[in-house]
Queue: 2 jobs
Job 1
Amino acid sequence: MTDQRPCSATAGHTPDDALTGYHVHAVDGEVGKIGAHSADLGPHHAVVHTGLPLLGKDVVIPSEAVSGIDHAARTKDQVKAAPVFDEEQYLGDPRYRDQLGGTRGSGH
């Protein structure tokens, strides 16, 4: 390892953030969730629970391997409860666009 910077220097994490339960993704898919003991290891490492809750195992990864933290991530239930997107209304009603935060005009 060449650089032992804490995660906060590279991924938007501050020492006060509770990351237990955050999903961990590798370049080829999800590998697990941040385990409860990560805070015990300090800022240079994270415990990741891989596999099923009772059948998986805990592994330690260096915090330099973390490229980002998505504090705005949503649960499946939150996504399912989100408003349905109406393309016709989006393209034709500037007020609807403003509600959604869009900037696209009515043309294509």
Note: DSSP finds five helices and four strands in the chain.
Job 2
Amino acid sequence: MDADRLMPIHDAAMLAQGERVLGEEFTAMNRRVLEVTGLTSRLNVLPFDDEAGRARLLEQILGRPLAPRVTILPPFFTDHGLRLELAERVFINQNCTFLDYAGIRLGEGVMVGPKAAFITVGHPVDPDERRHFLSGAPIDVAENVWIGAGATILPGVSIGRDSVIAAGTVVADDVPAASLVAGPKGTVRRRW
């Protein structure tokens, strides 16, 4: 994405001529999404004890082997995979979603509760731009962070080391290190 964090969905020259032709970058992203959706579909129906099969599919999804002692419990969902960076000892519980096109980094020892969602892409709010662009920004989660069940982490958020995100929290702003964030719109409730 460019400096403004916008990716054109359509080819600008063709759009100016009235043609709604998908742009090159968006087309490449869409191909990857279709490929990864197929891979995650296969991953999510494997027998739970097929650790070797799970490791092979995750390597294809992520574009590299998992770091040591990373645990991902299916079902697991991602739209791109190649921009999801998982450090050692990351634990991801069941039914989590990682829309990682703009990049997601989970530091060492991060634990993610079930049904958590990490969303790096979206659309501009302006109705005239909404169907023409994708917007996005990376998510960075520092070491030893705990993300509670059903939490949603939005584009551009950084979460500081040793922090806790309570279950069900929507995190739209950066989180300082060593703090508890809770509530429907993540608010710092305590620091240590």
Note: The mean pLDDT is 90.
